[in-house]
Amino acid sequence: MNESIHGEWAASDLQDRVSELQDRVAELIEQQTAISEVLRAIASSPHDLQPIFDALLDNATRLCRADIGGLRLFEVGGLRRVAVRGDPLWVSQAVSSIPVLVDEGGFPSRLATSRLPTHIPDLTALERARRADYWTALENIGVRTALTVPLVKDDEIVGIIALLRKQLEPFTDKQMSLCRDFAAQATIALESTRRERQYREMQTALAHANRVATIGQLTASLAHELNQPLTAVAGGGSAALRWLARQTPSIDEARSCVERMINDANRATRIIAGLRDLTKQNAPRVEVVDLNEAIADVIALTYSEAIKSGVTISTRPAPELPPVQGDRVQLQQVMLNLMVNAIQAMSSVEEGARELQIRIETVPSEGGVRIGVRDTGPGLPPESLPCLFEPFYTTKPDGMGMGLSICRSIIEAHGGRLWAIPCEPQGALFQFTIPADRTDHP
Ligand code: ADP
Fold it and tell me: Does ligand 1 have an atom closer than 6 angstroms to the CB of 339?
């Protein structure tokens, strides 16, 4: 009899143990899913922190059984609210009654700088003095239990996560440790976004430096190119004055002189505007770009360098080119690099015609526009092909070897491809594609 009771207890013990383990496994799976969800948000949104913070707070609020979760980040002047998630009614109450920026001397900021999680099982039990500002506001919207965990990066407090409950129900140790994990994930997301931003800023600065350096190689011919229209304007002005100073002033002749002067002045203005655009350091921007026009501006800039090097440029613009989306200056930079490289390559060729052909065409099979820059220079030896687009690959005595590598990153950032092939009987062909802009524009 005793044995059978003993056996029954053992069986029910085992049953309890099994269901306890099942609960634990379910809980771990839930936590694992939450972590994967946040990591996915971090991976798929490297530039935008908002979806990451939202996913993180959704999971923290749900897994820690809170009613509302908030995330604040330190900035000059205090802690700024960057995300609030949870019960929608409560979220809107919290958003309207608690300030977006809690000043540095405020209680949450002091809490954060203590570096430790702070658990307040019963807000109403807090001494009045400590309940000033923030906590009173929380209490007023019905918060009873609160947990705050600081975000710590390299020993520096960067923000705070707060989980709140309407019920008087203290957070468990497990929930507090989970909240600490979420705070660590928020810190990782902040850091990876900061690095991504830093990387992009460095790339933009490098591209700008390369653009300025390429323009620098054209300075002598550009000065000449600008000198021409300016001299023509001055000459046209004198001629117009002479026509007007005649005994019977010839208004028609004077007018045509002035018209030519306007054309010349416009030519100079176009070159200066093109130079200004390419040398300014602007943040990358996305706009609708007419490639025919953007490329024509680059040809105007390189024209006199080509003439100086005995190169003739022929262009075949596409009549019905679809617009593309992108950064006009960056796309012009690619063209400028390819054209200057081609002109320089041909300068080393003693014999044969020096021809630079630019072909712009719509390629429906590639879903966009393809640009080709073909020269009759020495071409590309087979061993150079794998290294052409590598940073610091150069065969020029004063080359940097960054141009083609930057061009490729620009084109790839625009969703296109850039490649090079040797041509027969001589020369090189560099081609790139840019996907057509699929959005409708008025
Ligand atoms: P850099 O002009 O400073 O050398 P790039 O990255 O623009 O840097 O070019 C890398 C190398 O690719 C050049 O040094 C040259 O050897 C080769 N190259 C680029 N364009 C051409 C071309 N059109 N014909 C032959 N070689 C080229």
Answer: no
